[in-house]
Design a protein that fits this description.
This protein has 11 helices and 11 strands. By secondary structure, it is an alpha/beta fold. It has a domain of 178 residues: Rossmann fold (3-Layer(aba) Sandwich), CATH 3.40.50.300. Strand 2 and strand 3 form a beta hairpin. Bound molecules: adenosine-5'-triphosphate and magnesium ion.
Length: 293
């Protein structure tokens, strides 16, 4: 049986029952023990098992196991440098672009190992799209920012079809009404919040299943942030979203599950409500109460 087929048939791990024991502590070496809480779900879109990431000799991610569910917003939080961006980038092989970076373990999308040698990263990155901290529209028109992906992925035949994808994507990103009369103007001429929604529309245009967002609102003002958060809530009905955020209020507002990372380890995963009201690990508690990070 091929590795790919084996992967497809691999049973999905479900969360073992756990007791609600008091806060787990770090071990004698200061390393974080096993992840506590509910890292796995019954109907995962993506699965990650025993994921290690190294930059040269330095280990940035240590044996992380977690699922991304269908139609959920999963928030990843933790102190600066704990590996949130590194882990997020594993989910669409963006770390392939970092020469010193090595990823071990297994990550699947719809049951297929995304690190299998047969996987082409270009379509993978369309299926698992990414939105960055700083909006990064292409130096092209608003229209061409959206049309670029469908063109290179060969998703459209006619100009009419492309027009339709551009309109639908901008509508889904809540930007259509603001830009429909200026589609030929440069994307870089939009406000920061509009640019970020343009980047989300660009990710949507190629029909993703998962959208990764790395601090998507940290360069935005509160009004633009509120719009992007509203959008995230709407997008959840069609996509899985993994969002890294430093704003705990934001994690609380937009996500259903929250994962807390510390020094490259996944400490605790739980419903967002539980993580913020009743964390089980003392490291999670220290972070959310502002004693750390
Ligand atoms: N390209 C790289 N080369 C070498 N080390 C890196 C690289 N990128 C990240 N690291 C290291 O990996 C670790 C995790 O970094 P990462 O950027 O993933 O953290 P983060 O949780 O996203 O932090 P922040 O909240 O500040 O964005 C850090 O020790 C960082 O210095
Ligand atoms: Mg980061």
């Amino acid at each position: 049986m091929s590795h790919l087929a084996e992967t497809i048939q691999a049973p999905i791990q479900t969360t073992p029952a756990h007791d609600s024991s008091v806060k787990t502590s770090t071990d004698l070496h200061g390393k974080v023990g096993k992840t506590i809480g509910t890292p796995f779900v019954d109907d995962p879109r993506m699965t990650c098992r025993d994921v290690d990431v190294f930059y040269g000799e330095a280990q940035a991610i240590n044996k992380v196991g977690i699922d991304v569910g269908c139609n959920e917003v999963l928030a990843m939080i933790g102190p600066s440098g704990c590996g949130k961006s590194t882990f997020l980038r594993c989910l669409n092989r963006m770390n392939d672009t970092v020469a010193s970076c090595r990823v071990e373990g297994e990550i699947t999308l719809d049951g297929v190992d995304i690190y299998h040698p047969d996987i082409d990263v270009v379509p993978l990155r369309a299926r698992v799209g990414m939105v960055f901290q700083k909006p990064n529209p292409f130096p092209k028109s608003i229209y061409d920012n959206i049309a670029y992906g469908p063109r290179i992925h060969g998703l459209t035949g006619t100009k009419g079809e492309l027009d339709e994808i551009v309109e639908i994507s901008l509508k889904k990103a809540g930007l259509w009404e603001e830009v429909k009369d200026r589609l030929a103007e440069p994307g870089t001429g939009l406000s920061g919040g509009q640019q970020q929604r343009l980047c989300i529309a660009r990710a949507i245009a190629v029909g993703p299943e998962v959208i990764l967002m790395d601090e998507p609102c940290s360069a935005l003002d509160p009004i633009a942030t509120a719009k992007v958060e509203e959008l995230i809530a709407e997008l959840r009905t069609q996509y899985s979203i993994v969002i890294v955020t430093h704003a705990m209020q934001q994690a609380a507002r937009v996500s259903q599950r929250t994962a807390y990372f510390h020094l490259g380890s996944l400490v605790e995963v739980g419903s967002t409500k539980q993580i913020f009201t009743n964390p089980r690990h003392h490291l999670t508690e220290d972070y959310i109460t502002g004693r750390f990070g």
